[in-house]
Amino acid sequence: MDVELGGIADGHHSGHGREDDEKGHGWWRDLVLAYKTLGVVFGGLVTSPLYVYPSMSLDPEMTTKDDYLAIYSIMFWTLTLIGVVKYVCIALSADDHGEGGTFALYSLLCRHADVGILPLKDGDMTGAISQSHHYLGTEKHSNVKTFLERSLIARRLLLFVAISGICMLIGDGILTPAISALVEALSAAILIGLFLLQKHGTSRVSFLFSPIMAAWTLTTPIIGVYAVIHYEPTIFKALSPYYIVHFLLVNGKSAWRLLGGTVLCITGAEAMFADIGHFNKRSIQIAFLFTIYPSLVFTYAGQTAYLINNPQDHYDGFYKFVPSAVYWPMFIISTLAAVVASQSLISATFSVIKQSVSLDYFPRVKVVHTSSNKGEVYSPETNYILMVLCVGIILVFGDGKDIGNAFGVVVIMVMLITTILLTLVMLIVWSAPPLLVGLYFIFFFALEGVYASAVFTKIPEGGWLPFSISLILVFIMFGWYTGRQKKIQYEMKNKITIDNLGTLLSEPDIQRVCGICFFYSNIQDGLTPVLGHYINNTHSLHKTTIFTTLRYSLVAKVAQNERIAIRRLGPKGIYSCVIQYGYADTGFEGAELVERVISKLMRDIQNGLVGLSSLSAEEEAAELDKAKQAGVVHVRGRTRFYIGKETSWYDKIMLGFYEFLHGNCRPALPALGVPIHQRMEVGMLYEA
């Protein structure tokens, strides 16, 4: 599997490294991180008062005081149940070695149950790699686990759900900046500036934006309390669920449709979960419980209190409830906060794109690690595509009402998918009591299902947008995955065995040339057919050849001492090497990759860990050092599918699309930081 890797790997990224490191810094570090999270993680949540009420189709002449109390009660309990209970108390604990989001949940499931459908490429090297990073094969069983392991359809459906969650979150990342637009031209210009800042890294961006969000979360609840005292001091009686029940019973269908607007009060919660890798669980919990949650409760209380007395202002409810004396300062703060709000989803989008690329579900894009000790990443291609889409949506949709309709579809779909995956994690990974898990699933699936049913009515009014974006992304991921699977199948069917290699090298016209060759392969229990093509056409092979496989696992991080596993193959000077990464690991690049592998091989030779050889350890080490001095070359296959007349129409479409994606994505060797003079690509056609 070949992907784009950025940054330099370090020792902090082993196992539970970051989480363990963070524990040693105490509460002061968590408080500092909690402050930084304001500018990155919670943007969508804290700015939701700007667009929740405008997104509702309220009739000022028909809306009563009790209706507004019910709407506030709905928002309060949505924030409490979904924000606090589901995400802060449950989802944040379902991280995978400090990483969050849909793929983290899918990773946990694949490591605790044999439910993944990635191609198995372990071969004979599996014993050298700790099984703690793959399917654990635990003794605990459940009916759900057994069903998933035995049903290919269920496993494929699980993968589809995980991919859909990723695509919806990316759609969220496109819509969040767009819905924050206040003045079209101004917002577009500021958003372009925001995207241009992304290359400097999340930490630097959060340093710039945290003061803005801190000012927002401090001032808006103060104004909210003022509005409560001035307009409706009894507003907090709405915390009683009675008002919700009464509202739904009296207003029926119209009340149900209003849920499509109230769901926006919890937007950004999924980004909070996906952004764990940029900070840590405890800092996010502190920031949410002691800053974000109370700020939203009081801000919505103030807005609602104002609208009870001024129902005609609900289309501009936020700015109208701000006292005139502080209007312009609040306008400036809210404008800046609305733009900063997009940062949480931009960061989350970078994270899920990186995970998808690492696991070979998405075409290669450049991914740069912007920090040496956190899961902070930046993707230039992703960044600029997001920028173009966000600005385009602002200019096309204008006033933002249709964007709000589209936004609700994305928000609730991601939450439903997280509920499903969390339920499976509770059963399979945590072995929680089925009764408690059942209560969790029934309650949250029903709650979010009702929201979803209301939001789906908005599809003709802009809700089609996220479905279109997600459908395109799903097609890209599925097309790429199909092509990669086909390549693996062809290589496994036509692989070169060690005996075949010995026969090839024994031919009199085959020369063994000086130097070291890193020959990249996607398979481990055999050698890529590109090797035979290479030897037959060049009539040579380097005296020291290391067949290298980059393996990406459904786990966040792999321990440093388990990254590289090497063994000797039959012929003299031929070795097999597996370099293993988790989806949140940084990769070795260029000279570092060579140095790490050769150093590991040298140690293993001296310790007798690479298998028997006709040479002594000293002689073999000397041969390796001599080969290193002669130079290094990196060889990989650049394979394409030959689509003939007998190819099925389905394969013609999917493989044709894959070839289009493959031809336009980044090549693998530059992705590994290999100098151009050391690269060699061998072209070969695979029969479809």
Automatic annotation (TrEMBL):
Domain K+ potassium transporter C-terminal positions: 515-686
What is its membrane topology? Multi-pass membrane protein
Q: Which InterPro entries match?
A: K+_transporter, K_trans_C, K_trans_N
Q: Which residues cross the membrane?
A: 33-53, 68-89, 153-171, 177-197, 209-229, 286-308, 328-353, 382-400, 406-430, 437-457, 463-483
Q: Does the keyword Signal apply?
A: no
Basic and acidic residues compositional bias, start-end: 10-23
Provide the alphabetized UniProt keywords: Ion transport, Membrane, Potassium, Potassium transport, Transmembrane, Transmembrane helix, Transport
Gene Ontology molecular function, alphabetical? potassium ion transmembrane transporter activity
Q: For the region Disordered, give the residue spans.
A: 1-23
Function field: Potassium transporter.
PANTHER family reported for this sequence:
OSMOTIC STRESS POTASSIUM TRANSPORTER, POTASSIUM TRANSPORTER 17-RELATED
Q: Quote the protein name from its UniProt record.
A: Potassium transporter
